[in-house]
């Protein structure tokens, strides 16, 4: 059965169709770092699903109705009503994106020296915990370590380890559950796991927050995979998940289906008061938090559309389809397929490239050279330990490439094209060269480094 996108196209944007010689030049100019490519160089952009979404006609209309009043804009109250209905949290602040919510929450809630415990902290989340003088500890479940297992909820936290952390000598200041678990292969968290976390957090008197960037995609996978939820709608499941926690931070550039936005929400009125002061000092007044009325109104509409079962089904099926086609073509990815991204197992496809020649990065570069497809490495280049000259001291546990899929942007034929390019690479993987670093910045290495092809 073809996947039928549950929408038709009303506005189009041409995508660059380029040749291999063009791409070879572009990649050399970019220092073999896909982050340095420009939009005109890229045919299919799988670098991120964040803020890359396509708006609906209703969202555009909502944008036209928006109210740009400085304080108390109608747009804010429309956004607030949708968030209240969805989350049940009494206190809610818009922010310009997820990391602003993280910064405000952690600097307000945590005391220096405390520990934040999570299934997996996203990288900006970890950075904001650390900038608050605290420690971020990841406790992924055992199943997460096996890339090939079809366990349904590999995003869960290890409950035994969580109890150990809460009962141990450390001062745990927050338990943060990332749904879906982006740093952990985009795998979902079960409702059973969230319920157990809520219980443990309450037992030890520690606040429990969600990092809810992909709350709707998590709800869809619960509906599909967790016993007892088949007849519960994704929206109802999402509401139940929010109800278990004391509050949330969220990047709405993902499941808000917009280009910019985020939120911080909670039950505790006293904590909300303190967060509001930081918000006003650093983001904006409490009724806009760094967003325009237009953003708030488009978000209010996006947050309604994102839990539509027909939309979620088509999106999940598209990702699963790409995973299947890639596997048939000879490229494995982390199983089972999630929703927002496919994590290709480059280490397995390119065994002739040792970790110090960055097999994940090599596959990401090859996808661009062969097909104009841009994606990001999640392997030793990003997560390994390097010395100042770019020599690898400790490889990452896996050599992966993340293909993040923007919402409502690409159709099945685009995915077929990507599968074909992958299949082509898998026909002669030994031809793919490794890479060597030529410029190694100390900070934010993977965004700013430059490389060259290595013939050794
Ligand atoms: C994207 C993301 C963030 C950060 O949000 P931004 O809007 O990019 O600042 C935090 N957590 C998760 C799980 C994310 O996916």
Helical stretch count? 17
Arithmetic mean pLDDT: 96
Strand neighbour order, sheet with most strands: 2-8-7-6-5-3-4
- What Rg do the Cα atoms give? 22 Å
Give me the CATH fold name of the largest domain. Aspartate Aminotransferase, domain 2
Q: Helix/strand-derived class?
A: alpha/beta
Give the total of domains: 2
Give the gist of this structure:
The chain has 456 residues and is of the alpha/beta class. Strands 2-8-7-6-5-3-4 form a seven-stranded mixed beta sheet, sandwiched between helices. The protein has a three-stranded antiparallel beta sheet with strand order 9-14-11. A two-stranded parallel sheet has the order 1-10.
What does this structure look like?
41% of the residues lie in helices and 15% in strands. It is built from 17 helices and 16 strands. The longest helix has 20 residues, at 309-328. The chain is globular. The structure holds pyridoxal-5'-phosphate. Pyridoxal-5'-phosphate is lined by residues 50, 97-99, 122, 124-125, 178, 182, 211, 213, 251, 253-254, 262.
